[in-house]
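User: Please fill in residues for this 152-position structure.
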């Protein structure tokens, strides 16, 4: 049986293999897109994890500062000021640079994180007069600026 002209159409010149090239190009494009998506997903997971760890460290340090500030407030309420020498801030809380007494480095564990805090006097004590309109207006006093630092 001889094929009829309508069942066998001749191919156009230069069209041979076009479907194969198109299919391979699409596979390559989809592969590049899949690899890019995978890399973005992994990078996003890493970034999210680092942000979470950073936030947890920040809040642990904040909690240590609040606890330390509360103890300093208790000292001031009992008419005492923090005593001792603070650690040198350039290399604070490392062996040989721990400070002493109330200003010494303290290590605490907050939510499973070790946090170190210490105090230092930012200025020498100076006299003040309580401003008008305040609760003890006109009374003389002494202000002792004390700061607290913490790091996870």
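Assistant: Residues filled in for all 152 positions:
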């Amino acid at each position: 049986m001889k094929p009829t002209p309508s069942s066998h159409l001749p191919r156009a010149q230069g069209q041979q293999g076009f479907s194969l090239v198109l299919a391979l190009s699409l596979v390559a494009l989809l592969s590049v897109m899949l690899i890019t998506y995978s890399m973005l997903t992994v990078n996003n997971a890493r970034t999210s994890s680092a942000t979470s760890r950073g936030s947890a460290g920040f809040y642990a340090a904040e909690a240590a500062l609040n606890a330390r500030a509360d103890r300093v407030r208790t000292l001031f309420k009992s008419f005492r000021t923090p005593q001792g020498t603070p650690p040198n801030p350039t290399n604070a809380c490392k062996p040989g640079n721990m400070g002493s007494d109330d200003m010494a480095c303290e290590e605490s564990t907050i939510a499973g994180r070790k946090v170190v805090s210490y105090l230092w006097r930012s200025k020498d004590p100076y006299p003040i007069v309580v401003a008008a309109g305040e609760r003890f207006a006109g009374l003389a006093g002494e202000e002792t600026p004390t700061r607290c630092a913490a790091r996870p």
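For context: The longest strand covers residues 113-121.
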